Amino acid sequence: MVEQLKPRYSVNWINRIDEIPQQEWDALAMPLNTPFLEWEWLNNMETSGSTKAQTGWLPQHLTVWRDRQLVAAAPLYIKGHSYGEFVFDHQWADLAQRLGVQYYPKLLGMTPFTPAEGYRFLIAPGEDEDELTELMVAAIDHFCDLNRISGCNFLYVDPQWRPVMERHGFTSWLHHSYIWQNKGFKTFDDYLGVFNANQRRNIKRERKAVTEAGLQLHTVTGEAVSKSLLSQMYHFYSDHCDKFGWWGSKYLTKRFFEQLYPKYRHRVLFVAAYNEAQNPHHPIGMSFCITKGDRLFGRYWGSSQEIDCLHFDACYYTPIEWAIAHGIQTFDPGAGGRHKKRRGFPATANHSLHRFYHPRLSQILRSYISQVNEMEQQEIDAVNQDIPFSRREPQLNADLETR
Q1: Rounded to an integer, what distance in angstroms lies between the CA atom of residue 297 and that of residue 345?
Q2: pLDDT-flagged residues of the chain (< 70)
Q3: Which tens digit of pLDDT belongs to each residue from 10-46?
Q4: d(Cα 69, Cα 9) in Å, to the nearest integer?
Q5: H or E element at residue 44
């Protein structure tokens, strides 16, 4: 009887994703629901100067090979701060300081500046996921020990991946995003039907205010996305950050937006607002979304004029209308929630995963995380109790039950 030898893997750390051929990386990333782990998006972050050591996002990607074949990868970053993550771990950093533990640098797994669920290790179909995960976790532990890194954190993780990593000793921390779900809607009026009468009138009033301001909103995607629109989107994004004092959050460069044109505009959706009577060629405001499969992700928005309710229509209502027409099942409009919950975006749980290497810090995390998560769940429940839905459940998807 011939003994079946296990595959011999090799681990390699790289600090530029373009060291990996795009075809090989995307063979692992394309089957996933998230678009934000694809080679083109991550490489653009690096080559545009958006993620680099000077911005506190030093790429340090883990790759696993069998001979010369890429079989697994993890996009990772060494962080010297916690900005751009949208999971606010400052309390852990403060605790570490009181304990005399150096919290930074830390190792982070997420798509930079992108609070959208879906992060996970990329593993080739047909490979032994448990074996490769064990190998990658061991490589991460060794790397952090060798470089005196305080901890490893994975943010906005794929919910199916979370229990895998919990089995490997990572601790889950509960958070929430605001996610619209398609309840079998066929029209925008179906979406309005989930609200109470007062909120239906409010949404109609907000959309009417945009029309009465002389604006028309157009959705632009795929081949219709032009270089000039991408350049204009950068200026809207930049001005919006400056206008509201978010200069510290202006993470993306102009080059990042321009480089979306050749190979990534098929994922881009713009909602562009025009005053066609005054200037039919230049929008006065735009929202920027990314789409993949049956998912839509809102990213950024900006406008050159303050128009009542334009933000709500460009960032929520028109994307929802487009989503319904194109079979989108979930729409994540981005960070924040003050405006979103009243417009049909319930608080929806997501998780991050953490491993601290200092024994005392790790002990405190494990001792108190259940209490922290319980408080977060109470907040989710309280938010959703306050959403102005009607008391009746819409009967829109009965046909789906028979499929």
Answers
A1: 13
A2: 1-7, 245-248, 391-403
A3: 999 999 999 999 999 999 999 999 999 999 999 999 9
A4: 10
A5: helix 39-47
